[in-house]
Amino acid sequence: MIRKNNNDQNILSDDALGKEQMIHLYFTEQVPVWFKLFSFLAFAWFFLVYVQARYFGLFEGVLELPTSAKAIFSFYTLMPLLLVSYVVVVFYWWLAHVMQNFSEWGRDKLWARVFWFITLSVITFILIDPFDKILKLLARVELKYIPGIGEINPLNWVFFAVLTYLTILLTWHYLKIAWDISVKKLKEWWENAVSIPLGLKITLIHLFRPNFTFYYPEQKREIPDYFRGRHILDFDETGEHLCISCKACERICPDRLILISYVKNPETKKLELTGFLLDNARCSFCGLCEDVCPTGAVRHTDEFAYSVEDRGDLILDLLAEYRERSLPLRMKRAKEKEQEKVAQIAGHPTIANIDASS
Amino acid sequence: MSGSAFTPRTYTIWEDFRLWLMHAGLPYELADALMLIVTFTVILIFILVLVLGLVLLERKFLGWLQIRPGPNRVGPWGLLQTVADAIKLLLKEDIIPMNADKPTFVLAPIVMFIPALLSLVVIPLGVANINGRYSYIVAQDLDIGLAYLLAISSVGVIGIIMGGWASNNKYSLYGAMRSVAQLISYEVPMVLALVSVALYAGSLRLIDIIHAQQSIFALIPLFPAFIIFLIAGVAETNRAPFDLPEAESELVGGFHTEYSGMKFALFFLAEYINMFTVSALITVCFLGGWKGPAFLGQNLLWLSSLFWFFLKVFFFLLAFIWFRGTFPRIRVDQMMHFAWKFLIPVAIFQLLIVAWGVAYRNPIMSGGYIPKISVKDIWDPKDYTGFTEFTRTSLPSALRMLNDSEMVTFLISVIGFILLILFIGGLFYRTLKGFAPSKTIFQEKP
Asked: Do the Cβ atoms of B327 and A199 come within 8 Å?
């Protein structure tokens, strides 16, 4: 089995124009040339016969003609009738297609085309009323009297019946469409109408809820332990900061905003911190400095409201800040040490002395 | 109360005040002038206090609806917030844009403010019993009060379009055009709803409309008109969800974008006065105005009537704020479609129902007034003037005046009304319990 080539789908076929566009084409563009000629000849023949009959008395004395002449004559007069009927039928079949596609409901429905074709034909018959003409010509059927209507030809009843049937069919169809649309609209409106009290109910419930908001300066939210705020330099219970000047935070900082300076103590061979600067304005508060610090010297606090008037003020001198903060503790420790020294000199037993002796 | 279309004149408390002054020995001219001054002062103070309170109420209530506290910094519980705002607006620099049409620009807030002020003239706030005679608490009791109100409220539109045009700003002009389109559109259903009320009450005088609701509030027989008037009233006051003229997110500020200081304050005042006017009109037309139990006795009738009136008005003011806190703004096309395709047909339908009720002497539908003759006799030339002569009674005595066929019609209408309420109520209940029509209807067929 040959697989269908996908590229073929892009080639426009005859149907690709679509029925909607097709119905806008002229009738004459859809029929072949021979049919145009054919219909012209049919109508020409028909009018020839008609003009002859109307003005030159063509049918006078027909009954006296011989049978062969009668046959030729009937061919000459009935043939154009047949041809014209054929042309009209073809035209109506096309017109029914147009009518079918005129509204949405008729698309892709053959019965709609048939329905329009029958409707058109019946309307034409009623307008021309050939049976009445025939009946008048032959004068064979008695007219019937119906109270309220008057004299009527019984054969015309057929047409009235068909007409009534089609009228009922059409009315029913359009009423059905109207009903569908109105039901849909009403449901839509109903939904809209119902959503209004629903919304009002929701806001009414909100009216009695406690506020989500805080009265900020008076009330503050609880700040979690893991919050990363402004940095500090931490110190131990003796008041000495924990920084060993390893510069690990300076190296890990993704924004390169820590600057550490130190000197080497020639006696103890230890590094002594002389400056710890941190540009808080550019800090992304990633917490890497806190994580990498081997002694836990650099710490994030939960302080978040420290706006300043100058951007330069955001460059924190952590060492100076540490000194200021730890001053009471260091003073206290210094005083205690002094007292200890005085006690040792006086020879009073202290806890330290007892521990040392035992 | 029985009589014809011509009711005896009513007295206002201001006239009683003038009478009291004349008894005290003042000449008529002086008493009259004093009466006017006092009336004007009282109304002005009333309006200022009202608007300040209303703005604060709106901000607080809207805050609570949105689960936040609202203004709470100025004064205790933020009560002085609007006072501070008013002082700020008064002291602010009054800017007129360079390319603005200056005379029109200055005139526009006045043209909007004055009609808003004038519309308060005819609204009856209460009734007082002074020496056994009823005096109404109303600035001026007009026979054509309803028509006057509608006419005056339409003038405010001119102020809006003047302001929008004179600002020489595209946003202002857009806002003004939207506003005018909206106000003109929504005036039609509003007037139709009010025509239903006038037909129901048999009068355009607001006091008569209140008296017509002696037995039953017009809310019940005229419920569709009430809903229409409520919606149209929200639209007329340019409030959410019909605040398209002032859509902040689209048009900066609408027609008052270029205004500042005192002129802006005038626009602001006018809007809030309109809000009060609409609430008061709804109260008068559908909720019986000051009608309510006189729980303080006849001597303090004025207090209890004012209490009931302002209780009802307060409810509607809160409802307006409630709507603002609930509904999102609608589109321009939706707004126009809603007015012309939904509200106006429903309003006309309501009008037909009321006309039917009046013509067939249905006492519930006609505010308890019974024309001398029924509609079936109206074509009798010797009797047709009887249609304009009517007796206004309470509901039970009105029912006794009906003949048998009218009684049957009345009962059928009452049963139909109850069935309708049950049906709609059932649908509502069912929908609110979780049945959504869209789940069954709007699914696409596979």
From this structure: yes
Q: Which residue of A has its CA nearest to B319?
A: A200
Task: Enumerate the β-bridge partners of residue B282.
Answer: none
Across B430-438, average pLDDT? 61
Characterize the bridge pairing of strands B11-12 and B133-137: parallel
Q: Does A186 touch chain B (CB under 8 A)?
A: no
Cα–Cα distances in angstroms (integers) from residue A352 to residues A63, A266, A331, A346, B249, in the given order: 160, 30, 21, 14, 77
Q: Could you tell me what percentage of chain A is helix, strand and coil, using 3-state DSSP and rounding each to the nearest 5? A: 60, 10, 30
Rg of chain A, C-alpha, whole Å: 55
- A198-253: pLDDT as tens digits: 888 888 888 888 888 888 888 888 888 889 988 989 888 888 888 888 888 989 99
Interface contact A219, partner B, CB < 8 A: no
Q: Which residues of A touch B325 (CB under 8 A)?
A: 203
ipTM of the complex: 0.74
Q: Are B241 and A200 in contact (CB under 8 A)?
A: no
Residues of B (406-435) whose Cβ lies below 8 Å from A: 427-428, 431-432
The whole-angstrom distance between B339's CA and the closest CA on chain A is: 14
- Contact list in B for residue A202 (CB cut-off 8 A) is 326
- Give the best residue of B57, B61, B66 to mutate against chain A (max A CB count within 10 A): B66
Q: CA-CA distance, A241 to A344, in Å (whole number)?
A: 28
pLDDT at residue A77, rounded to an integer: 87
In angstroms, what separates the C-alpha of B240 from chain A's closest C-alpha?
A: 13
A77-106 pLDDT, tens digit each: 889 989 999 999 988 988 888 888 777 777
Of the candidate ranges A61-65, A282-286, A317-321, B384-388, the one whose mean pLDDT is the lowest: B384-388
**Cα B18 from Cα B28, distance rounded (Å):** 8
- What is the band of A292 on the pLDDT scale with cuts at 50, 70, 90? very high
CA A7, A12, A16 angle in degrees (round to 5)? 125
